[in-house]
Amino acid sequence: MTSTVTPARRGEAAVLRRIWRLHFWVGLFAAPVLVVLALSGLVILYSQPLDNWLNGHLFVVAQGPETVPLDAQIATAKQHVGEGYSFDAVTPPDAPNHSTRVDFLAPDAPAYPAGETDMTQVFVDPHTGRYLGQRSQLSGLVGFANNVHRMFGNDGPQIQLPSLWHLMDSAAYPDATIPVGVGNLWMELTAVWILVLLASGIYLWWPRAIESTKPLLTIRLRKGGRIRWRDLHALTGVVIAAILICYVLSGLTWSRYWGENWRAFSATVAPSTSVDAPSTPAKMGDYDRLGRRIAWAATDDPVYASQHDGPAPAPLSFSDVDTIAKEEHMVPGYAIIPPADSTVNGETVYGSYTVVNRWPQKTSEQRTLYLNQFTGQTITNATAAQDGALSRLTSFGIAMHMGNQLGVLTRITATLACLAVLTSVLTGLLMWWKRRPSGRTGVPGPASPATRAATPKKAVLTVSVAAVLLGVLFPVFGVSVLVVLAVEAVLVLRRRSTSGGAPSSAPPEDAPDETGGDIPVGALGG
Questions:
Q1: What angle separates helix 389-401 from helix 258-269, to the nearest 10 degrees?
Q2: Domain 43-147 architecture
Q3: In what ranges is there compositional bias, type Low complexity (predicted)?
Q4: Where are the domains of the chain?
Q5: How far is CA 196 from the centre of its chain?
Q6: pTM (2 decimals)?
Q7: Among 176, 232, 282, 298, which is least packed by CB within 10 angstroms?
Q8: 11 vs 452: CA distance, rounded Å
């Protein structure tokens, strides 16, 4: 019997088969990370209510008529930490019934970028001056969620990777390599593959004549079985695809490797407005801590110096600085970082008090106030408006990622996105379980010779160009693609050697209905 399937239809079926295979394997690789990110992301989105529920004894106090001076509260906190711990910052209460938090660094705490410091947080009742307790910032449910969401960041095993921007401008970026945590690098790699997963999923869903009976925006609940899960999987993925792409791209700006190169690129292409004021050797990135993270665009900002005439007078008290911060309308929950003095060419350079709004924050609330430690005069008031265009865009994406930029609406969207990710992973697992042949794994094997021959050259070229572009934009992904291609080539050679050099007659472990169950078998089989 002569087949009536046209070459074009056969070619489209071949492309669908191969894209489905790609989608399956990438989904298998990315699913564990997606589940971890979704679950930990849900915890992070609701950190404040969870913290208040789990650690209310540290955060909530009885309101009183008077307040103990902030400096006395800091002194109380210092009495309850170990010897050698250094005072890092103080966060005055953001409400009358909340405690004061005083942060300390352990003597052996790694400096950024070697690690991301786990602070010791001490809590004091601002009305009585009573010590309430302390904790490690990465302890408990919220701390654990923050740790796994970043795959332990730059803590733990590290590798040195070349700084791409050092190759472009070695004077501005003298470090030839960037220390990158292995877990964080794995997260960065998976994030780019998730983009491939989303793109391939959209392609499989896209309406086409070959699948004319396949619904696009409905779920065939009465069908039951794999068809029901397939419809739910496709609809969920397509609805949230754009949101997830934005989350992945904004999350990549935090990654230790690609993110640092993106920071350098942003600062070079669209530099921030510079401030004409003496500065210290320190940068704001030196104060980057989880739990009081510096705004992304402010990491490379200098810490400005305090000028004075004659002998150095006594610095202002923290109570004085707190009063100035309130007068300047800093957002409640701001942190006050003490001035760090340094010696340059045998002379003392006096640092400034740095008051930074709590992170995460809306871009409109991104603000750092530098105060002369002797006079309290404002040296400069850094906001997002002074950042370059790319830095502002990145900060906006991060605020959206954290569920802050548009308030409750952003948080609801982020919550739905996390739940949708979990739904997609679960339905994908159910689809595989329903379609696998009895006694077999049901995972797709290599494409058959007929499928390869039927694949249009234009499709192969399009996918190749897309892979090259992604590989150039994300070098770690590019390396992984080369590894995958090398493994595939080795497997092909092994199959040929076991079959005596002839193409294997054994059919690949591909399902005939792998694209959704609606393509005619004749079209798929070629």
A1: 140
A2: Roll (3.10)
A3: 499-508
A4: 1-32+148-271+389-526, 43-147, 273-388
A5: 17
A6: 0.85
A7: 176
A8: 9
